[in-house]
Amino acid sequence: MTAPLWNPVWERESFTLQCQVQLNNRRNVTDIRYLFIKDGKELESAGPPGNYTTPAARAEDAGRYECQLEAGGVRKASDSVQVNVRDASVILQTPPQPLTEGDKLTLLCRARDTKVDPKHITFEYYKNSETLEFQPSTGVTIPAVMKKDAGLYKCFAYSKGRVLGESEVEVSVRNFFARVTLTASPGPAVLEGEPVNLTCEVERNTYLSPPVNYTFLRDGAPLAASSGTAQYFITAMNKTHTGRYSCTVETWPGIRKQSAAVKIELASKAVH
């Protein structure tokens, strides 16, 4: 589910939630029902299917939202998102959190003061007390966020040298890869001469599916001709193939994760 492009929202501002849940063979299903849930309670939606709009946010509209899609006897739920509502002179807005490695991060400081012309309002941005570069109309932009970009961000709003207010937000960034697992078939103990198939299995924290590069390692050293596919084959097991195997996955530069090691060894032949 997608939340408002910016969070928090001001009181009396409008925000829209959009349900994005993927169903297999959805094009063959005609009866689709969307449900929106806030803090465990179902909401009534009068907007277009798959959308829930709050025309003028109030403090009680803050909470954790999720949506569910029912179709063909199947129900799937989205990830939940937190929506915050503020009645403050200055707010620092970010995309819905948590962010995932590779997401675009934009921080926008906004101020409202009925006595001050918006043209006379200036801003300053900081991360962990370090001054940040920004554009007046678009704020601070990080095209592809990384784990190192997590932390406390703060902004100040000024008018002719007078501080109008300040706001801060903690930005969290989760791993792009939720889990990486190496499996061996027929198993970790293999008879001499038998083939071995190693498979690198990946779970993501995002719906995005950019190309993934796979590298297999034995005892920490990359194996020749092992990059680019999710499988590595040993045609005939022998003593030189024994060792601790793992795999590393990488997508955008700097976004990688390694599996736990699996010990592959020769099995003893059964004596009859």
TrEMBL record:
Residue ranges of domain Ig-like in the record: 11-84, 88-172, 178-265
PROSITE patterns the record matches: IG_LIKE
UniProt-recorded name of the protein: Fc receptor-like protein 2
UniProt keyword list: Disulfide bond, Receptor, Signal
InterPro entries: Ig-like_dom, Ig-like_dom_sf, Ig-like_fold, Ig_Fc_receptor, Ig_sub, Ig_sub2
Keyword Cell membrane: no
GO CC annotation: external side of plasma membrane
Phylogenetic classification of the source organism: Eukaryota, Metazoa, Chordata, Craniata, Vertebrata
Record-linked Pfam families: Ig_2 (PF13895)
